Each structure stands twice: as C-alpha cells, then as structure tokens.
Amino acid sequence: MIKSEICEILGIEYPVFQGGMAWIADGKLAAAVSDGGGLGIIAAGNAPADYVREQIRIAKAITKKPIGVNIMLMSPFADEVAEVVIEEKVQVVTTGAGNPSKYMKAWKEADIKVIPVVASVAMAKLMTRLGATALIAEGGESGGHVGELTTIVLVPQICDATNLPVIAAGGIADGRGVAAAFILGAQGVQLGTRFLCAEECSIHPTYKEKILKATDLCTMVTGKRLGHPVRSLRTQFARDYSKAEYGGMPDEELENLAVGALRLAVQEGNLEKGCFLSGQCAAMVKKEQPAAEIVKEIMEEAEPILRGADKWVK
C-alpha cells in the first residue's frame, strides 16, 4: 500500500485529500472520505460561520477520524470561520483564494495543521517560512478558482522550492494521475471532481448527470477580467457570463451576475443560471460510487504503476 509522510503527519491511511468544494463538500461527504481512509474536507466557501460549525459537528458525529476545513480567504466570513475551526478543534485547515498569513499563528497555537493551496513558487516559499504543515500545489486543470500553471509544471517546481510535503491537485481522477503526482515529487493528491459523483455527495442529480456525461472539452474558464478565473462546465450560464465578460459589461454588474450561481447549480441543477464547477478531468469520472470506494480504488490503481515505474529504463 502506498504510504507517505503526510499519512503519518495527519493520521490518515491513504494520502488522498477530498477537495474543499464550496456548497458541495459538506460534513456528510467529508466524513465519508475520512472514514474511507483519506482526509475529508468541509468547504467553508462564502458560507457564514454557523453553517461551517454545523457541518463540522455533522462530520464529527459520523466519524472519529481526522477531518479538515477549507477556508476561502476571499469570503466575507473568513475571520469568523478562522475562529470556528479553533473552537471546534478541527485537525486540519486548508486555505484557498488568498494569503492566510494573518491566521497562521493562532491556528498553529491551536495545534491545527495548516495546509495552504498554492499556485506559485513565491507563495509556496512564503507559506514554508510561516510554518505551514504541507502545501497543496493546485494546477489550472482543477475546477473552481484556478491559477495559470498546469499541474505537471507546478508540482515539481513547488517540490523543489520547499522541504514540506506537497499534495498535488488539478486534473487527477484515477490511479494514473496519482502515480504521475508521486513521480513528480508529491506525497499525496487532492481530488475534487471525482468526488462530485460520490454517493454521499449531495449535489443535484442534474449536476451529477452533467459530470457523468462530460467530454474532454466540457469545461471553460471565466472571470479572468476580474482577476478571479473560475473553471466550470460549459453550460448556458458559463457561455452567457463569458459573453458579458468580453462584451463590455461594467465590473460591478459582472460580479453580481455570478452571485448565487453555484448554489443554483448545486441545489437546483439550474442550467440557465447555475455555475457547475468542474475540473478538466470530468470526462474521466465514469460512475457514481461510495466515497470510500473511490479512495481505495485510485490507490489500488496507482500502486502497480508506481511499482513498474522503472520498466522503461533498460
């Protein structure tokens, strides 16, 4: 079985993180992944602190294994959620869409393992200096907020820039991706899109159907003009937003156009006004299955590949 330093640090069986997908990664999904031996992560997103506290308690009622919370630092509730994870004694915090520097000291004093998502070498070096436990190097193939570099380019550069364990994310959906991440120097992987079709994932059936029917060219990136690019499925909403983005709509109106769009996708499956976040690997998701089965399956697929990684060297 594949083991790495991150398993020992966090007390997990498999080096597999479930991505913190806003309004998707709730306490039930996180608990299922953690029970399956990975690290389940509750997404705070733009949700208020009371919602995050509720989801943490739901997860803890289901599993006694470690869980994490992802804090999107652009959220207006980030300060409050930063306190909630301390009060609820969350074991791991991952962060995204910003710089978590101002929270690091308090989290570390609370014995929380802090694992920021980084999309550049500069941010990786800063987080290393500030005492992060590990880093998630997330390439632009991922769903949601994305950076410029691809996973295959970003991961080895982050590994070279830090002495911390690196978790690879972006475009990973099966054992081949896991094996590639380890060969690039990572000590674990984070998957988001693959878990959209976990049985414990509570997204609208239309959302799951869109993922299961996805093709290789099913996603697009919008929001670059505002400095916050987001990858999602090519729905009517995404096409309308792109048209507005490059059609001269004022910034404030453009921002308002996206308000609530993710929740409409997650809760109602609304194809006209909903934003269906997805990574480029959606076409590799073939079936709905229990979260624990996903964790075990990808690791079992990766193991023989890594064992035979030297077969090309004669």
Blueprint of the fold:
Blueprint: H1 5-10, E1 16-18, H2 27-35, E2 40-43, H3 49-62, E3 67-72, H4 78-87, E4 92-96, H5 101-109, E5 113-118, H6 121-129, E6 135-138, E7 144-145, H7 151-161, E8 166-169, H8 175-183, E9 188-191, H9 205-212, E10 219-222, E11 230-233, H10 236-245, H11 251-257, H12 261-268, H13 291-307
Parallel strand pairs: 1-9, 2-3, 3-4, 4-5, 5-6, 6-8, 8-9
Antiparallel strand pairs: 7-11, 10-11
Helix pairs in contact: 2-3, 3-4, 8-13
Written account of the structure:
With 314 residues, the chain is an alpha/beta fold. It has 13 helices and eleven strands. It has an eight-stranded parallel β-sheet with strand order 1-9-8-6-5-4-3-2. The chain has a three-stranded antiparallel β-sheet with strand order 7-11-10, covered by helices on one side. β8, α8 and β9 form a beta-alpha-beta unit. α8 crosses α13. The longest helix has 17 residues. The radius of gyration is 18 Å and the shape is globular. The two termini are 26 Å apart. The model has no long low-confidence stretch (mean pLDDT 94).
In round numbers, the mean pLDDT is 94
**Which sequence of SSEs, written as H and E, runs from N to C?**
HEHEHEHEHEHEEHEHEHEEHHHH
The dominant shape is globular
Indicate the structural class: alpha/beta
> Numbering strands along the chain, what is their spatial order in the largest sheet?
1-9-8-6-5-4-3-2
Strand percent estimate: 5-15%
DSSP helical segment count: 13
Structure described in brief:
α5 links the parallel β4 and β5.
